[in-house]
Structures are given as structure tokens and as C-alpha cells.
């Protein structure tokens, strides 16, 4: 199964000080490497933007941008954003809040039968309302 990798996982893997990761974080990084090796990563523009945002040093930004270019973006359509908004409204009515990017990820996962790989606990709460596979 193809997998949308959330920014939280990419951030773990891209940290310079990987030796300071907890055992669970190390397992997550190893799992990401496996997903990459198996060519199962699905990238979306909003996650790419989050990963690249905040990198002050231009050379590091360009290096990371180049590395991420190996993962083409899933084509997101207007109806995908509309579906994400519907999910946002559904969750909001039930007292569950999440970011617009997280709900876009959920909408795409549901539409394209993709799994979501995240360390963000918001996805566990969203899974109560939205049917998707969470790694």
C-alpha cells in the first residue's frame, strides 16, 4: 500500500542528530527508510512545503529540496480540497479539531486508499471519525 508520510516523520528522519532519537523514533525512521526503499512514498505539496519551511541556510534548503525532488507530488484536485473541508466540518461538529493539512491528508488517504504514516496524535483522533489506515 502506498503511504502519505506526514511532516512529523520526515522531521525525525531529517534531523542532524539522529543519535539523540528515542528507540520509538529510531523505529519510525527505519520504517520510513523501508517505505522509501519499497517505493511506497506519496508526497503532497503541503507536506513538502512544511518540510522545507524554516530552513534558514540556503545551501541546506537547496540540498533538501533536491533530495525531496525524488518524490513527485500527488496531483491534488479542487474536489480533494472540498472533501477535506467536508471532513473538517464533520469533525468540528463532533468536537474534533485538526489542521487543514491534516484533513487534506485524510481526504487524500481515503480517496486514493493510501495509508498515513505519522507520529502526530491528531491522526488517532481523526481516525475515530474518518476511515483510513494509520501506520
Description:
With 135 residues, the protein is α/β, with parallel strands linked by helices. It has two domains: 3-68, no CATH class; 78-134, no CATH class. 56% of the residues lie in helices and 7% in strands. It has seven helices and four strands, in the order E-H-H-E-H-H-H-H-E-H-E. It has helices at residues 7-14, 23-37, 45-52, 58-68, 78-93, 100-112, 122-126; strands at 3-5, 41-42, 115-117, 133-134. It has a four-stranded parallel beta sheet. Helix 7 (122-126) links the parallel strand 3 (115-117) and strand 4 (133-134).
Task: Briefly characterize the structure.
With 135 residues, the protein is α/β, with parallel strands linked by helices.
Order of SSEs, N→C? EHHEHHHHEHE
Amino-to-carboxy terminus distance? 11 Å
Mean pLDDT: 94
Shape: globular
Strand content: 5-15%
Helix/strand/pairing class, anyone?
A: alpha/beta
- Note poorly predicted spans: none
How large is the radius of gyration?
15 Å
Q: In which range does the helix fraction lie?
A: 55-70%
How many distinct helices? 7
